[in-house]
User: Fold this.
Amino acid sequence: MSTPALVGSCGCGAVRFEISEPLLGSIYCHCTRCQKRTGTAYQASALAAPGSVTVTAGADHLRDWEPGGLAKTYCALCGAHLFARDGETGAISIVRLAAIDGDPVVRPLARQFVAYHPAWAPIPHDGLPRFDEAMPRPQA
Assistant:
């Protein structure tokens, strides 16, 4: 039996998950949806390889908010935001970095939707590329 690349959980520990492959990349999102959802100035999230995230405990506690696009998945018991997933298939494609127990290995490589960043929390001078809107997707 192989050890998962990463494990994670919600704030209360009721929901647990494993990620069997290394994360593909990470980004900070400063959109108002992420601000409202997290109560912070931005959200750090990572892209997971298709099929690599498995919920190992507490799947019955997962709830989705579906504002359009990917569903935002959280624990109904503690409110911790964990994933973004396809609302129809349930496939998890995005993992919130704070939900990972330990070092996720990847580091955010850019900041998107910075045009919506709140004045009360200046963006750090970290040298990351900044995009006023969505970061352009790489062409295949």
